[in-house]
Amino acid sequence: MELILWRHAEAEPHTEDEVTDQLRALTPKGARHASRVGAWLDRQLPAGSRILTSPATRCVQTAEALGRKFATADALNTHSTPEAILDACGWPRQKTPVVVVGHNPLLGQVAALIFSGVAHEWKMRKGSLLWIARKSDEDPAPFIRLAVGPDIVGKLR
Asked: Taking the mean position of all CA atoms in its chain, how far away is CA 14?
């Protein structure tokens, strides 16, 4: 399995009100970063990859930059848990790559849980990707295939 954690790109300032927070849109800079990362990621992913996103506007807009069909999943929203996110994407059973567009600190906690068994708060920069893979059930140890931010991804081939 391959699991690509993609933190939403830069959004409007945080609000304490949960309803308003869900509606925060990407900034122009965030839209550019999402477009850059989405275009690169689209060239890397196989056709059958699953794309899941939090229903928050900033995450949906980030996922739209990939230019592929995606599904929203409440299990990826800000009130979720790392375990619920892993369950929603099928880690480690899913055979096709899964892209998860979500929030910090949850995505960092997902990565920490995969690698250490504990959901520590690992920071992921806005718009960045963490691509985690496993070779097989016989060799189940996860490894980092790629960790990259939107400022670097445009320089990758």
From this structure: 19
Per-residue confidence of the chain (157 residues) as pLDDT tens digits?
A: 899 999 999 999 987 888 888 999 999 999 999 999 999 999 999 999 999 999 999 999 999 999 999 999 999 999 999 999 999 999 998 889 999 999 999 999 999 999 999 999 999 999 999 999 998 778 889 999 999 999 998 777 6
Strands 98-102 and 50-53: parallel
Going from the N-terminus, what domains does the chain have, and what CATH number goes with each?
2-10+23-153 (3.40.50.1240)
Q: Which residue has the tokens 């992913």?
A: 45
d(CA 121, CA 106): 8
Its pTM stands at 0.95
Distance CA 150, CA 91 (A): 25
Inter-CA distances, 63 with 73, 92, 111, 133, 147, Å = 12, 22, 19, 20, 18
Q: b/e string for 51-62 if b means 16 or more Cβ within 10 A?
A: bbbbebbbbbbb
